[in-house]
Amino acid sequence: MIVLNKDGMLIQKEQDVVPFRNRVKEYAVKIGMSLVNQTKLITAASELVRNMLKYGGGGNTLIEVVSKGRENGIRLTFSDKGPGITDIQLAMKDGYSTGKSLGLGLPGAKRLVSEFDIKSIPGSGTTVTVIKWKNG
Amino acid sequence: MDRIPILQMGKFLLVTIQVDLYDRLALNLETDLAQMVNKTGARGVLIDISALSIVDSFMGRILGNIGTMSKIMDAETVVVGMQPAVAITLVELGLELRGVSTALNVEKGMQLLHTKVGSFEDNEQEEEVDDSTE
User: What is the C-alpha to C-alpha distance for residues B39 and B58, in angstroms, rounded to an integer?
Assistant: First the structure.
């Protein structure tokens, strides 16, 4: 996989979410992603960035344009230094939430993207990486 | 503080969301609407989301809350103008928007509100007429 473009954004407060979503959209439009896929990617990004704010106290995001073979895509990385997730399997389950939300954030985001990876070390933070291929 | 305007049109409240909402703004809208329904005695709430490029689980929850809250206060809620890409995404996300009626556009939404609320009032009027004749 080749990284064609790299952009980072610090997320510290709620008001950073909309500009971040817009930035993701810009890149998705730039690689010619269809409107439906754009919407899926941005929705997933919105879920993940909210999780990062709510549970991780904010963190860093990375927006990358990646290319594999003939396919282009957007890779998003969300890393926080929050308390981490003790049971990832449970956190990925539909309807499970330690907060007061619907518990759709993580499993929903996974369904909306092409590739999904989550790594968490309790006590030191969580990193979520997603890829949405242009035609994926 | 930023606020989403709520317009009153007869017995209905009209909300047009023109910007992508951050969480606080959506929460404000929820409380503002509850207060407006209470203050105006509105029988219906119409929310136009045609300008929203995404509806995530948080926004979906807010819409659901507004629907339930209004229902408890005897008002119907209709969400109109959802973009096709948003609808596709919502289904995949796993959000069903239960308890919220939807319509394709503002016009159809208004019609729906009228039938929902109107039929009720017709019945009430009929009953009143019945009472007076007795």
Answer: 26
Distance from CA of B88 to the nearest CA of A (A): 7
CATH of A2-133, one of 3.40.50.300, 1.10.1740.10, 3.30.565.10, 3.30.2310.20: 3.30.565.10
B55 contacts A108? CB cut-off 8 A? no
Q: What percent of chain A has pLDDT over 90?
A: 84
ipTM above 0.90, yes or no: no
Contact indicator for A107, A59 with CB cutoff of 8 Å: no
Domains, chain B, ordered by start: 6-133 (3.30.750.24)
Give the confidence band of B71 by pLDDT, cuts at 50, 70, 90: very high
Minimum CA–CA partner of A42 in chain B: B54
The pLDDT value recorded for residue B123 is 53
SS3 content of chain B, % helix, strand, coil (to 5): 55, 15, 30
A105 at B interface, C-beta within 8 A: yes
Q: Which residues of A touch B89 (CB under 8 A)?
A: 36, 39-40, 43, 112
Q: How far is CA A121 from the centre of its chain?
A: 18
Confidence of residue A97 (pLDDT cuts 50, 70, 90): confident
